[in-house]
Amino acid sequence: MFADIIENVRKTTPLVHNITNYVTVNDVANVLLACGGSPIMSDEPEDVEDITSICGGLNINIGTLNKNSIEGMFRAGKRANELGHVVLLDPVGAGASTLRTHTAIKLIDQIKFDVIRGNISEIKTLALGSGTTKGVDADVADAVTEETLDSAVRFVKAFAEKSGSIIAITGAIDLVADKDKCYVIRNGRPEMGKITGTGCQLSGMMTAFVVANKENPLEGAAAAVSTMGLAGEIAWDRMQEGDGNSTYRNRIIDAIYNMDGQTLEKGAKYEIR
To answer: Residue 138: is its pLDDT beyond 80?
Structure first.
């Protein structure tokens, strides 16, 4: 299944509009190109409706908010909904500040999101309407572990049903779920946390995967998570003495660029609950 998902991305070259944070915008663009998609970046309110109209998907990331970009998010999101385009929300740091939390919750209230992707603290903040996070990292107490996995799966399915969105929680163990089915994914390396923006990159790539597989959006989202995690494993295996996190970032992008369906199918580590 995952082999077909990634090959569909390569065949269709989905165009994705990204309103993403300026810390990682270049890497998001490069990962989209690497996976077979095509990126456009624009957050100017007077520009976003035209831009999102020519794309198949919209990736909204709240990592570096300002008044202009917030207005752009709402205008682009509503236009994408009107056109039936895929829309993804990455609620970076929701719970860390009032502005981030209120913006994310208001976005969910006013825009229909096909996918919401974040760490467990961010997702809990959205599910509960409030919460706390340490920066953009999941609280340790909220981490999805083997011991907490059953309750986490129940939680993510329940929020998927409540929100009407596919919910992707990423961390040491990744969960991608709709109301009926949850992919439990165990690809990745802990060293990926030493690179700024792997989550932002994943959100851009996930949007492309879902656009290219609109008939199987849950599988599209899950395949994107496995692709990023597997790329992290492959890239780590290729690290040399003296390499650091900058090289690791580039090797991850290269691994995604060279990923094919057979490699993904063989390397994806997941179960369905």
So the answer is: no
DSSP string, the chain: -HHHHHHHHHHH--EEEEE--TTTHHHHHHHHHHHT-EEEE---HHHHHHHHHTSSEEEEE-TT--HHHHHHHHHHHHHHHHHT-EEEEE-TTBTTBHHHHHHHHHHHHHS--SEEEE-HHHHHHHHHS----BTTBPPGGG---TTTHHHHHHHHHHHHHHHTSEEEE-SSSEEEE-SS-EEEE----GGGGGSTTHHHHHHHHHHHHHHHTTTSHHHHHHHHHHHHHHHHHHHHHT--TT--HHHHHHHHHHHHHT--HHHHHHH--EEE-
Other residues' Cβ atoms within 10 Å of the Cβ of residue 98: 9
Contacting residues for 110 by C-beta, under 8 A, at least 6 apart: 74, 77, 78
Q: pLDDT class for 128, splitting at 50, 70, 90?
A: confident
On the question of pLDDT at 141 being above 80, the answer is: no
Strand order in the sheet with 166-169: 38-41, 15-19, 57-61, 86-90, 115-118, 166-169, 174-177, 182-185, 270-272
The pair of three-digit structure tokens given for residue 141, joined into one six-digit string: 């107490």
Task: Tell me what pLDDT residue 186 has.
Answer: 98
Query: What percentage of residues in the chain have a pLDDT greater than 90?
Result: 92
242: left (phi over 0), alpha (psi -120 to 50) or beta: left
What's the rounded Cα separation, in Å, for the pair 101 and 103? 5
